[in-house]
Amino acid sequence: MDAIATTHPPAQSGADTVVVGLFRDEGIAHDTQDGALAALVAAGEARPRAGHLAVTHADGLRWIVAGLGERATFTPEAARIAAHRVRVRAADLGATSLCWELPHHVGDEIAAALVEGTLLSGYRFDRFRPRADEDDPQAGPEQLIISAHHDVAPAVDRALIITRAQNAARDLQNRPSNDLTPSALADRAAELVATAPGLSFELLGREEIAARGMGAFACVAQGSPQEPRIIIVRHEPPAARGPVLGLVGKAVTFDTGGISIKPSAGMQKMKFDMSGGAAVLEAMGAIAALDVPVRVVAVIGATENMPSGRAVKPGDIVHAMDGTSIEVDNTDAEGRLVLADCLLLARELGAERLVDVATLTGGIVTALGSVYAGAFAGDDAWWACVASAAERADENLWRMPLHERYAKAVRGTYAELVNTGRDRKAQPAMGAEFLHHFAGDVPWCHLDIAGMSDDVGVPYFGKGGTGFGVRLLTALAEDLADTL
Questions:
Q1: How far does the chain reach from its first CA to its final CA, in angstroms?
Q2: Closest alpha carbon to 445 in 374, 392, 394
């Protein structure tokens, strides 16, 4: 689906279907020549209740009056949900081109949200069932137009780039692990770099990982015959300024738990354990497409976590790239082992600010559900930057605590660190403190997105991956450029 902006009136946009919003205690701003929309309202067929839709035909076009509720509560999230409902109805009606009249006196973030809601709602993962979706009316319309009195093209164009990147991350998430292997994820990175000006690409395989002393990452990968990949993507525009932003993503393309094997129920969803890596990779594409003048280095650790005769065992001791010794108490706490070496590598490559993104713990899902991602930050000023970007991107974060007692809980008995606590208490916080060790003195924020990666119950996402983090990371890079 494409999206464009226009300052022409909706009826002159070329769309076959026009959407006009209706706020409570407000009338129709622009009606048809014969007053058909006001007539719908007068008859009670069109209502301002959020989610209510009414349809009529006038002036040779199809018109949808969309209830938007109270103006004061019409947030970007409300706009996304409204856009989703309108898109579904328009698709059922056979619309091929849809024009939203941007409600008067709203900010450009609403125009962006209408694009986001429409494109996220229109997403389809049809890689393995193309014939089944050929006649699916839910996939349309093919074009979205935002009509406004002022030029909202910058907001619409930006939203289109970022939402396409978010949907690309969803494509990666939804692929099964026999299709999206670590090597296949590396292939996607190579493809992205080849089509996105300003990006460069480097790949580390099993031998290079071992040669660099990345024993924490390597021990996770050793149980699988699939070749592990550490994917490095750089964005270094000529006009770059400010500190180097390091983005680190966990991309465990399938997590059985290893020798500490998970219960079989629900294990098929462990293909989503690469969601952090998907968000980081596709955010890099958006950052490049927007030509954000900030240097960014992304490090994505891609591997499977499998049980086998070669797999790491509970009680084994391994060494991270900086020499830190780690007891592997539980092989299902593999994400922090992957990220430990990736954080160290990002620092070696020059990162001066760090954000890691990972589906790290089930505990964060218990704590926050699918409403917030858990955030842990070792630096208040850096947290303020990340939180501001999250607010602008409308991707919810809730700051969780770091504490010396959590840090003590991940000190090992036979090695410097242990990869999980001795009981189930505060696992998200202890995982974060484990990672904090490897972030060192670099301002760092850890995002545990386990509850936000897939099946979050938001209407415009439906089932499967959400691409959570793409908008946030892109906004963070932009904000760094704007504040320096």
A1: 35
A2: 374
Tell me, yes or no, if 399 is annotated catalytic.
no
Residue 202's Cβ-count burial label (10 Å; 0-12, 13-18, 19+) is middle
For 363-396, write each residue's pLDDT tens digit. 999 999 999 999 999 999 999 999 999 999 999 9
CA distance 133 to 418: 48
Token pair of 58 as six digits: 């006038």
pLDDT one-digit tens code per residue, 24-35: 999 998 999 999
- Give the E-state strand segments of 350-450 in sequence order: 353-358, 373-377, 397-399, 417-418, 444-448
Look up residue 159 and give its amino acid. Answer: A
Catalytic residue among 170, 188, 336, 353: 336
| Out of 68-77, 423-432, 441-450, least confident range | 423-432
Question: Who contacts 115 (Cβ-Cβ below 8 Å, separation ≥6)?
Answer: 3, 83, 144, 146, 156, 159, 160, 163
- Is 122's pLDDT higher than 80? yes
For the chain, the C-alpha Rg in angstroms (whole number) is 24
Is 262 labeled as catalytic in the residue annotation? yes
Q: Among 125, 122, 127, which residue's Cα sits nearest to residue 139?
A: 122
Give the pLDDT band (50/70/90) at residue 140: confident
Classified as helix, coil or strand, 294 is coil
Measured CA to CA, the distance from residue 222 to residue 141 in angstroms comes to: 47
Q: What is the DSSP string of 83-127?
A: HHHHHHHHHHTT-SEEEEEPPTT--HHHHHHHHHHHHHHH----T
Cα dihedral 233, 237, 241, 245, rounded to 10, equals: -10
User: What pLDDT, in 10s, does the model give residues 84-120?
Assistant: 999 999 999 999 999 999 999 999 999 999 999 999 9
- Smallest Cα–Cα separation from 282: which of 373, 347, 191, 217? 191
* pLDDT of 164 above 80: yes
| pLDDT value at 197 more than 70 | yes
DSSP 3-state assignment of 159? helix
Instruction: Say if CB 346 and CB 438 are below 8 A apart.
Output: no
Q: Which of 262, 269, 392, 399 is catalytic?
A: 262
Burial level of 43, CB count in 10 A (0-12/13-18/19+)? exposed
The three-class DSSP label of residue 393 is: helix
Question: Domains in the chain, ordered, with CATH?
Answer: 2-151 (3.40.220.10), 174-483 (3.40.630.10)
CB 122 within 8 A of CB 87: yes
Spatial distance between the Cα atoms of 241 and 125, rounded to a whole number of angstroms: 38
